[in-house]
């Protein structure tokens, strides 16, 4: 018998419980509907791409206005696309369960001073290239 078998059995049981929970099944159903709807799938991808880009560049009032416009566009698209709205709600609800589980596991990891400053290293490595491709067309402008 493996000395960690009880841990693995418990992890497998947790995975079974997660697969059986309504939030997970709602997420899978909503994801399937979104994957079968190329237009709404593209809308969601555009929303997430713009959100990521705005988080990267938002540093002044003009950029803040762009962010506000983005948020307005996002809310309109979600309200007008029930497939996207259902997916985002299901993703959020299941994500909260995963986040709470993550918080439980984070408690067992000791503080590691070597991990301090990791954010600066990651940000430096993620610097945009000198030349960028033209922006891709989107459904949300």
Any overview of this molecule?
- The protein is mainly α and 141 residues long.
- It has a domain at 10-103: YheA/YmcA-like (YheA-like fold, Up-down Bundle).
- It is 73% helix and 0% strand.
- It is built from six helices and no strands.
- It has helices spanning 5-20, 22-35, 38-57, 61-80, 82-106, 118-125.
- Helix 2 crosses helix 5 (82-106), helix 3 (38-57) packs antiparallel against helix 4 (61-80) and helix 4 packs across helix 5.
- The chain is flat and about 55 Å long.
- The N and C termini lie far apart (59 Å).
- The model is unreliable at 129-141 (pLDDT under 50).
Keywords:
flat; mainly alpha; 6 helices; 141 residues; YheA-like fold
DSSP E strands, number: 0
The N- and C-terminal alpha carbons lie at a distance of 59 Å
β content, as a range?
under 5%
Low-confidence stretches: 129-141
CATH architecture label of the domain at 10-103: Up-down Bundle
| Shape, principal axes of CA atoms | flat
The CATH topology of the domain at 10-103 is given as YheA-like fold
CATH class of the domain at 10-103: Mainly Alpha
Radius of gyration: 20 Å
User: Considering DSSP H and I runs of 4 or more, what fraction of the residues is helical?
Assistant: over 70%
Helix and strand run: HHHHHH
Mean pLDDT score: 78
Topology:
Blueprint: H1 5-20, H2 22-35, H3 38-57, H4 61-80, H5 82-106, H6 118-125
Helix pairs in contact: 2-5, 3-4, 4-5
Short characterization:
With 141 residues, the chain is mainly alpha-helical. Helices cover 73% and strands 0% of the residues. It has helices at residues 5-20, 22-35, 38-57, 61-80, 82-106, 118-125.
């Amino acid at each position: 018998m493996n000395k960690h078998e009880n841990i693995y059995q418990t992890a497998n049981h947790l995975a079974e419980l997660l697969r059986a929970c309504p939030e997970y099944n709602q997420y899978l159903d909503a994801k399937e509907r979104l994957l079968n709807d190329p237009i709404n799938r593209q809308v969601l991808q555009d929303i997430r791409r713009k959100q990521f880009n705005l988080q990267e560049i938002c540093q002044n009032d003009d950029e803040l206005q762009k962010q506000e416009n983005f948020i307005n566009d996002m809310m309109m698209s979600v309200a007008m696309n029930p497939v996207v709205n259902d997916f985002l709600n299901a993703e959020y609800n299941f994500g909260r369960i995963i986040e709470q589980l993550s918080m439980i596991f984070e408690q067992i990891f000791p503080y590691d001073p070597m991990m301090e400053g990791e954010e600066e290293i990651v940000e430096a490595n993620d610097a945009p290239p000198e030349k960028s491709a033209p922006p891709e067309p989107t459904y949300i402008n």
